[in-house]
Amino acid sequence: MVLMIENAVGRGLEVLGLGMLVVVGMLMLLMVCLYLIIPILGKINSKGTTKSKKKGKKEETTVVVDSTPVAETEPTTNDAEIVTAITAAISVYENKSPSTFKVVSFKRI
Description:
The protein is built from 2 helices and 2 strands; from the N terminus they run αβαβ. By secondary structure, it is mainly alpha-helical.
């Protein structure tokens, strides 16, 4: 079977359109699944955190970092500033208030 150029281009565009529809359809299906699953997982996660809050237990996280001296290449800064920065970074990472834990020591690298 010999195809003329017009028929070959038409067939190619038909296959291209069908392929694009399949890809877009699968992406839409994936998007709908994510919109359905994310709220369900959020409710499951929030149930676990509310149980620990209801019990009235205050969680305190203690961060211990070794403070072994390392060869100094930069001028020294105030240790309180470093502890404040570490505390802020950990509180953002753990999504908790900075008052729920304390930085005991740290190591310069």
